[in-house]
Design goal:
Elements lengths: L45 H6 L21 H11 L9 H11 L3 E2 L12 H7 L1 E2 L2 H14 L4 E8 H8 L9 E9 L2 E6 L4 E3 L8 E2 L10 E7 L10 H13 L12 E3 L6
Parallel strand pairs: 1-2
Antiparallel strand pairs: 3-4, 3-8, 4-5, 5-6, 6-9, 7-8
Helix pairs in contact: 2-3, 3-5, 4-5, 6-7
Length: 270
């Protein structure tokens, strides 16, 4: 999703915050209006992935890759070697910190959302280029699963953007963000790659993510979850736009922002 791929900061070099919301106003040539009778059919698995706390009680169900998120054992070995991950770090926060630090060395090349729904984890690994926060979430969660850590992508829409869209203020394009949910050391956490921070006491059954990112100061609302965009029914940026507009018009009830503990990912120590 393009995500405000940091207009002024540019979706970053490794030493800069990689500000990556999705900014879909220029998602592809021949811009289309995001209007579909059904913006993107919701896979049946969404009931389990998104709205049912018991579904998270067996994290092992989130270890299987999807059509866009398979990473071979050979590719995983390359990641482990280049990221400097030791066997005793597998499944822990130290591993996650090293994975995100290593991904920060990739080239960042925002494409306005043109590649949403088309990239694969294996292809991103081979190309060493990330085109937006969808790619960050896709590749990071795919690596985690391949290494034995249950993980999902959480695709969201900005709370501020939904409010502005409903009121007719539509100046800067569609805005949302992609996060990663991971089951680490006996708990679910939520990871945000721009700031390299995570919620240590995250509740995956709550669709509200109160973390500010870029121009979105209030936070985000989870629309879909899955191991990759294909698994949760997003094939391109136009369908993502339509889904965001659909959520903006839904009656989501009273939105309460949960309070979580936000912590920095550990830096590489050895």
């Amino acid at each position: 999703m393009e995500r405000p791929e940091a207009m002024e900061r540019g979706c970053g070099r490794p030493l800069l915050p990689f500000l990556c919301l999705f900014f879909l106003a220029t998602a592809a040539p021949a811009r289309q209006t995001a209007s579909y009778d059904d913006p993107s059919p919701e896979p049946a698995s969404q009931a389990a992935h998104q709205r049912s706390r018991p579904a998270y009680e067996d994290p092992s169900v989130f270890l299987e890759p999807g059509s866009q998120s398979y990473i071979s054992p050979g590719e995983l070995a390359i990641v482990m070697n280049e990221a400097g991950i030791h066997k005793d770090e597998l499944g822990g926060m130290a591993m996650i910190g090293k994975i995100y630090a290593w991904l920060g060395t990739f080239q960042n090349s925002p494409d306005g959302g043109a590649s949403i729904g088309r990239n694969t984890a294996s292809g991103l690994l081979g190309g060493r280029t990330l085109y937006g926060c969808t790619d960050w979430a896709l590749l990071a969660s795919s690596i985690l699963r391949a290494a034995g850590t249950p993980a999902l992508m959480a695709d969201t829409v900005g709370l501020d953007w939904m409010r502005d869209f409903r009121s007719g203020r539509r100046g800067i394009g569609h805005q949302g963000h992609a996060f990663v949910e991971a089951y680490v050391e006996g708990r679910w956490i939520l990871i945000e790659h721009n700031s390299r921070t995570y919620y240590s006491d995250y509740d995956p059954s709550d669709p509200v993510i109160p973390m500010p990112v870029g121009p979105e100061k209030t936070g985000f609302y989870v629309m879909r979850k899955g191991v990759d965009p294909a698994a949760y029914g997003i094939r391109d940026a136009f369908r993502l736009n339509a889904l965001m507009e659909d959520f903006a018009h839904r009656d989501l009830g009273g939105i309460t922002r949960p309070r979580y503990e936000r912590e920095p990912l550990p830096g590489p120590s050895r």
